[in-house]
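Shipment paperwork, digital attachment
Item: protein structure file
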Amino acid sequence: MKSERVPGICVADPDADCDNCSLKDRLLCRFEKTFANKFLLGNITYRVLATAIAFVVGFHTDQWWMVPFYVGFVLLTFLIVEPRLLCSHCPYYAKEGRTLQCWGLRGMPKLWKFHPEPASTSEKRAMLIFGGIIDITPLAFSLYGFYVLVLDWLTGSVDYIILTTLGGLTLIFLLVAASFDKMLRGGTCKICTNFSCTMNKVPEDLRKEFLEKNPTMKEAWDNA
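Attachment content:
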């Protein structure tokens, strides 16, 4: 179902006077395709490497549930859970259309109504659980794979191709994860308008200035 634009939120207003706004270049208030593509590339690379780790470990240990579990959990999180618990509190969610038009989960279906109020403590905790699972699971798979390989080595039957492949994938995964984390917490999270996110680091003065310019959200945040 196509959602209508929520009034009183400048991010959702295509006619907003951004050029004369005091927050221009201080907050990520408008959709920037170049930035969104950079985030998308990093996110896809991160998930593909995680899935590859699950496949290699699953192949070597006959634990074939690993790939469908991880892929299914990622889809559940990004398609349903995160849009409700986190994205629905973001001003980008107030834009008109059937899908999210933001720098993060661009293209995800808008199955929920917009919630201008801040996320509740239970919503934040639930989001941390889901996010933690999809981020920690690949490392857990990798550690299990190395554990099995050590057992193989003790019996003199280690598969060096699997060992090299898993080691390489894990190393690249960690490097990508570190780079992705730096991009987010080192930069994006300092200018992101989704103040409900636990990773958000926008200074309080900028938050207040943004809310003053967005009465719909300000009223909901004041009431909360």
